[in-house]
């Protein structure tokens, strides 16, 4: 319930401020182009007015390559691949099941036949049951880590029909390479999914392209682990980054994140080297045993 309420509050705030808010400047001096489901985005280009579109449109649909499309609704994004016999969708975004169906139908008459779970966070996969109802025979795929975690936590979401064996999944002529993320900074079962031969990688909840890092570094358990995730994503082969949130990503976004984190580390280091322990609160011992630590 908390997740639903906070998501609704965030969207409500976005909707009420859209009229007066201006689109933020690009973090990477991006070239913005009009959203198009028929004209492919060149590497490095981004969708114009994305914040306003997220707050006012049912969904955003952008062609990335001949067969790969970028989808976003309510500030949550993913990608899908149109094959010869069906559609492969990555993630079933919470609250976006209907919009996903409309977006797919906008570019093909083929049904979604396969769905991949990227990680066991309901905000990214909660509409799986709705998609099962819309596409009879839908096959759900998940890594062994995600399958085991859903079982361990007693998830009430549909379980995977097939556990991804090894580090690849084949869908028609497409190979999806699964790269487990080395640091469990955001999720215990986190992985990157590379659509080989397309230049597209989908790795949600680490980098929000064309935006500063999300609150608490994407909810990371460890700041050091977060930097490790950035480095690992940078080491992969891709031209388009789908980050689950934010715009379509490119390599200059990685460079921006590294500069941002370098500046942050320098500022924090300067502050810690200047402010004496426990001096920011008068008589910290009179408050509680940890005030000096928490206030420095």
Automatic annotation (TrEMBL):
What residue range is the signal peptide? 1-21
Q: Does the keyword Hydrolase apply?
A: yes
Superkingdom in the source lineage: Bacteria
Q: Which SUPFAM superfamilies match?
A: Metallo-hydrolase/oxidoreductase
Keywords from UniProt, A to Z, are: Hydrolase, Signal
Instruction: State one molecular function term (GO).
Output: hydrolase activity
Q: Which residues form the Metallo-beta-lactamase domain?
A: 76-245
| Record-linked InterPro entries | Metallo-B-lactamas, NDM-1-like, RibonucZ/Hydroxyglut_hydro
Keyword Signal found: yes
PANTHER family in alphabetical order = METALLO BETA-LACTAMASE SUPERFAMILY LIPOPROTEIN, METALLO-BETA-LACTAMASE DOMAIN-CONTAINING
Q: What is this protein called?
A: Hydroxyacylglutathione hydrolase
């Amino acid at each position: 319930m908390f997740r639903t309420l906070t998501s609704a509050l965030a969207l409500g705030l976005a909707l009420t401020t859209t009229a007066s808010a201006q689109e933020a400047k690009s973090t990477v001096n991006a070239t913005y182009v009009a959203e198009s489901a028929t004209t492919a985005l060149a590497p490095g280009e981004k969708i114009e007015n994305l914040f306003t579109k997220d707050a006012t449109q049912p969904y955003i649909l952008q062609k990335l390559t001949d067969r790969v499309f970028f989808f976003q609704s309510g500030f949550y994004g993913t990608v899908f691949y149109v094959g010869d016999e069906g559609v492969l969708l990555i993630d079933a975004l919470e609250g976006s099941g209907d919009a996903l169906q409309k977006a797919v139908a906008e570019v093909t008459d083929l049904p979604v036949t396969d769905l991949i779970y990227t990680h066991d966070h309901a905000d990214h996969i909660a509409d799986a049951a709705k998609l099962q109802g819309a596409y009879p025979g839908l096959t759900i795929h998940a890594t062994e880590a995600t399958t085991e975690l859903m079982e361990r936590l007693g998830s009430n979401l549909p379980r995977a029909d097939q556990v991804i064996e090894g580090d690849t999944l084949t869908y028609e002529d497409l190979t999806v390479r699964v790269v487990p993320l080395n640091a469990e900074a955001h999720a215990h079962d986190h992985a990157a999914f590379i659509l080989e031969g397309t230049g597209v990688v989908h790795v949600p909840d680490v980098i929000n392209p064309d935006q500063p890092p999300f609150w608490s570094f994407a909810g990371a358990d460890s700041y050091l682990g977060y930097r490790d995730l950035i480095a690992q994503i940078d080491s992969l082969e891709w031209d388009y980054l789908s980050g689950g949130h934010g715009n379509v990503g490119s390599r200059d976004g990685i460079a921006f994140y590294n500069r941002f984190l370098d500046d942050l580390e320098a500022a924090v280091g300067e502050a810690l080297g200047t402010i004496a322990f426990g001096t920011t609160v008068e008589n910290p011992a009179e408050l509680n045993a940890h005030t000096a630590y928490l206030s420095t």
